[in-house]
Design a protein that fits this description.
CATH topology of the largest domain: Nucleotidyltransferase, domain 5
Protein name: ROK family protein
Organism: Paenibacillus riograndensis
Family: Belongs to the ROK (NagC/XylR) family.
InterPro entries: ATPase_NBD, ROK, ROK_cs
CATH class of the largest domain: Alpha Beta
Number of helices: 11
Distance between the termini: 34 Å
CATH architecture of the largest domain: 2-Layer Sandwich
Strand order of the largest sheet: 3-2-1-4-7
Helix content: 40-55%
Radius of gyration: 20 Å
Number of strands: 12
Strand content: 15-25%
Length: 315
């Protein structure tokens, strides 16, 4: 298969890769790579390159388009500028390192932006605009899709829902702020707060398991976490006035029942505002949203490049 596109979702705890046939828009294969907090960026890039190399060998054809969504911010050169969940990666020239390891270019975008595009293009039965997409995983992010394009802001840093302040007297965040939503409603936050309460857990999923078994402390912790998430989403709805909200990410995909109460909670915090009946639904694509978004964004960027080349040839 030569007409292939690889999509990469670089999250806070793992990387997921998928290879698509661009002509029929079909996912052919996918791989998950666990990346611990101590994983060096060059090691991660090497593992990505290894997977792509094996796919090329199996398909006996070059892969020309690679798209990656990063959970951290990067500049125009593809250097990571800020990654709160991976501070050791700040300053790492991701694009340069990837190109050196694979001998091919890579298109970089924010992971929440890709997930939003994936849901807009392939998840929703009927695309709506504006669409607010919220991702809840190791961290928290969001993106606003308008007429098929993601609003990126003046500095390319829009959608940082995880870093809005929900407690001005709260804990310091690696982003430099205080009391950020991500410190109370993300998967890593749930782990940290549960451990502080002395609960016998090693990961966030253990907290949900304890809650399901009737542990009151675990149940209350999850309830408080989702309540703060609802406040953050309600504030975003007040500001952006989307037609609907879709919530996805690893935490939501693994524990959908716990997050089904979000719509009611968000609507309660909106009070009597015109947005009070905004629809809040869970992602249809689940963990694959960003991978499908990589396909959508990659096709969009290739189309733009082809049109630019046509313009040059016609001059």
């Amino acid at each position: 298969m030569t007409d292939a596109l690889v999509s990469i979702d670089m999250g806070g705890s793992a990387a997921r890769l998928a290879i698509f046939d661009r002509k029929v828009m079909k996912m052919e294969d996918s791989v998950k790579i666990d990346l611990g907090a101590g994983t060096e960026p060059l090691e991660a890039v090497s593992q990505l390159a290894g997977v792509i190399g094996r796919w090329e060998q199996a398909r006996k054809g070059a892969i020309h388009t690679v798209v990656a969504g990063l959970a951290g911010l990067h500049d125009a050169a593809g250097t990571i500028t800020t990654w709160p969940n991976r501070p050791a990666w700040n300053g790492f020239p991701f694009r340069e390192a990837f190109t050196s390891a694979t001998n091919r270019p890579i298109i970089l975008f924010d992971d929440a932006n890709l997930a939003a595009m994936g849901e807009y293009r392939f998840g929703l039965a009927h695309p709506v605009s504006p669409l607010l997409y919220v991702v809840v995983g190791t961290g928290i992010g969001s993106a606003l899709v308008m007429q098929g394009d993601v609003y990126e802001g003046a500095r390319g840093a829009s959608g940082e829902l995880g870093h809005i302040t929900v407690d001005p007297n709260g804990e310091p965040c690696p982003c430099g702020g205080f009391g950020c939503l991500q410190l109370y409603a993300s998967g890593r936050a749930i782990e940290r707060m549960a451990a502080a309460k002395g609960l016998p857990i090693t990961k966030a999923s253990d907290v949900f398991r304890l809650a399901a078994q009737g542990n009151e402390a675990a149940r209350r912790l999850i309830q408080d976490s989702i309540r703060l998430l609802a406040i953050g989403i309600a504030n975003a709805v007040r500001l952006l006035d989307p037609v609907s909200v879709v919530v996805g990410g690893g935490m939501v995909s693994r524990f959908p029942e716990a997050y089904r109460s979000l719509e009611k909670a968000v609507q309660q915090f909106l009070g009597t505002l015109p947005q009070k009946n905004v629809q809040v639904s869970l992602s249809v694509l689940g963990d694959d949203a960003a991978l499908w978004g990589g396909l959508a964004y990659g096709l969009q960027q290739v189309s733009i490049k082809n049109k630019e080349m046509e313009g040059v040839h016609n001059e």
